[in-house]
Amino acid sequence: MRLLVVGAGGHAKVVIDAARLAGFDVVAAVGHEGGAEALLGVPVLLAAQDVAFDVFIAAIGDNAARARAFAAYVAQGLTPATVVHPTAVIAETVTLGAGTFVAAGVIVNVDARVGQDVILNTGCTVDHDCVVGDHVLIGPTASLCGGVSVGTGTLLGAGVSVVPRACIGDNSVVGAGAAVIGDVPDGMVFAGVPAQPIRPIGA
Fold first, then answer.
1. In terms of domains, do 67 and 119 share one?
2. N or C end: fewer C-beta atoms under 10 angstroms in the chain?
3. pLDDT per residue over 78-125, tens digit each?
4. Domain boundary among 75, 106, 139
């Protein structure tokens, strides 16, 4: 199946590599003026109209930018692909939303539900009964214990640990290495061990 990768930065390279291993024919990436001309041998174009493809994936690390790109392509009637690296371990009862990317070494356990346009980055773990909202990024080696919920548009940095049944709100950020031992409200930056509120998003 011919895959278009929307994005042309470092994360797009990771997606291209995983997609090839998963059996996709990566035909092009979409970048911007003055950016790279190719990624891992894949041509970088300025517009999706310049190539024929069957499905797309938004491969942009910034959650808000990725969500905008995802919505724009879906609004055109285009089909998002879910790309799973072959070394990931996904339980049979897991739900993965359209356009989600699952990187190398990820483990997603039974009855977890992962939304659309999510990045589960290298080696992270999402345990049983977790619910991950749309447009979330879970960083490398981050660990969600059972029953955790993560709201739409939230970023969990590399190495974050979240205790069972914690609720992390929409559009929040948890800094790298933080230990989340309780709930995180919407629109807040948390960091530290244990994680503490730092400031509202945008403040």
1. no
2. C
3. 999 999 999 999 999 999 999 999 999 999 999 999 999 999 999 999
4. 75
